[in-house]
Amino acid sequence: MGFAAVTGLATGLGVAGFEELTRTVLFDRIVALPVGLTIAAPMVGLVLAALLLRVAARGAGPSTADEFIRNFHDPAQPLALRPVPGRLAASVATLGSGGALGYEGPAVYLGAAVGSFVQRRCSRFFSREDAKVLLVAGAAAGVAAIFKAPVTGLVFALEVPYRDDLARHMILPAGIAAATSYVTFVSIMGTAPLFAVAGSPPFDLRDIGGAALLGVLSGVGARLWVRALLWAKRLGANMNPVVRAGAAGLVLVLLGTLSWAAFGRPLTVGAGYDNLPWAMDARHGLGLVVLLLALRAAATITTVAGGGVGGLFIPLVVEGALLGRVVSGVLNTSAAASTNFFPLVGVAAFLGAGYRVPLAGVVFAAEATGRPGFIVPGMVAAMVAQLFMGSASASPYQLPGRRGHLERRLDLPLAAALRTDVATMPPDATLREFFVQHLLGNRERSVPVVDGNTLVGLMGIDELQRVDHGRWDDEKVVAHLRGDVPAIGTATTLGRAVAIMADLDVDLLPVVDDGRFVGVVTMAEVVKLEEILERTTDPR
């Protein structure tokens, strides 16, 4: 547990430095500039981030929190540390210039990198089963620090790797790291809650019904938001990074101009922390709230399409708060009279649905405001939102749930169980030679028939039994082999190979690489899990 505390301490210091540089040194100065320069700044930041990713991060992509989730599910590889400085520099450029993303993505990535580094340096103290324990602890520490919310950090890091499960065996180290990081961060940055909210309004059954309605709207809204986000990622992947950054920057300038014209301030610039107090101000009409809801979503999606480096946690929070403000303006209940009740319930629901972290969404709404009274309605809204979210998620690397040992192995490529020393036979060999050399000599039930490097088919005991014994010396295997067995490539997964073998009722499949026969995969090799594990993971 000492390693988790070290991870939390280092992460808390790193996140404090990151926030001070990004928000105080850069962003606060950007928003103090003349409005035209403030609106244009995100375009400059996107172009600079694209250059930093190409040069400093050596061509790495813009993902941050997604890298934690992706690496969590890759037991064979530790988190790559070489792109970390470049990615963090690109995130400073994106967020410090006013890109519409959150600070938590880089904080999670920084914490995961710290945990991975500590574990790599002290690997002799960890078993193979604990290969990702400090990775998760570091991610929890990053969220705990950036939001001043240690429980949110713990729950988020345990929830986010899966859509419908928890990484339960990492609770203790993740909790220690989150608590240590929180204490370290607030010792430097102060303990004031992320969002200042006055009072804890009462609610009744009608308000619970309103929370359920908000959950439905949040689930549907988050589903549409995630689809647009994934579309933006695919669109950006097909363009030159600098060109797409410039094009997205121009769109952000347009959105900032519309925001300034509508609200008297560029609310689409920056992570969106200032959007929550604006949404809770009863003086703003519902039409303006709906407009800001659309503009903020467009700004975040455009920033992602432009290759911006940052998180999606706070953009989801902002969308939830604005949607809750709309519901608050429509309903006539006791809680709706308080302008902060439904916005904060919306935060829990929209965040929980978009990232598939309902518990983290509820805890965040309570911790970030210092008001635990939002837990019950927030939980109702968050759980209803999950029902209407479907299987989509803001992160493409989440899995539905934890899988067993066999299930994880079946996702491996055929190279994990490929036999290259397999016996073969030429197509002009006789059936007698097949019987003597392979069935009797090698006890092989099926043998690949290969002409040079070209696969011809598969000869097996079932095909031999169909021919009278007296003809075995004269008949060639090419006339009786099985030609309907497909030759699969080395990139095929073991699970797919097992399914094909079951459908064809064979115990092996020939494998080719660029049309050349390279070996076979057998059912016996697939089930040797320990051997496969040793070949494909760190032998510690």
Tell me what the structure shows:
The chain is mainly α. It has 2 domains: 2-389, Clc chloride channel; 405-536, CBS-domain (Roll), CATH 3.10.580.10. 59% of the residues lie in helices and 5% in strands. The protein is built from 22 helices and 5 strands. α5 packs antiparallel against α6, α7 runs antiparallel to α15 and α15 runs antiparallel to α16. The two termini are 20 Å apart.
- Helix/strand order: HHHHHHHHHHHHHHHHHHEEHEHEEHH
Instruction: Bin the helical content.
Output: 55-70%
Highest CATH level, the class of the largest domain:
Mainly Alpha
Q: State the low-pLDDT regions, or none.
A: 529-540
- Tally of contiguous helical segments: 22
Distance between the termini: 20 Å
What is the CATH homologous superfamily assignment of the largest domain? Clc chloride channel
List the helices and strands and how they pair.
Elements: H1 2-31, H2 35-55, H3 65-72, H4 84-96, H5 104-121, H6 133-146, H7 150-159, H8 171-189, H9 205-237, H10 241-263, H11 275-279, H12 286-305, H13 313-330, H14 341-354, H15 358-367, H16 375-389, H17 405-410, H18 431-441, E1 446-451, E2 454-460, H19 461-465, E3 488-489, H20 494-504, E4 508-513, E5 516-522, H21 523-526, H22 529-536
Parallel strand pairs: 3-4
Antiparallel strand pairs: 1-2, 4-5
List its traits.
single chain; 540 residues; mainly alpha; Clc chloride channel; CBS-domain; 3-stranded mixed beta sheet; 22 helices; 5% strand
What's the quick description here?
By secondary structure, this protein is mainly alpha-helical.
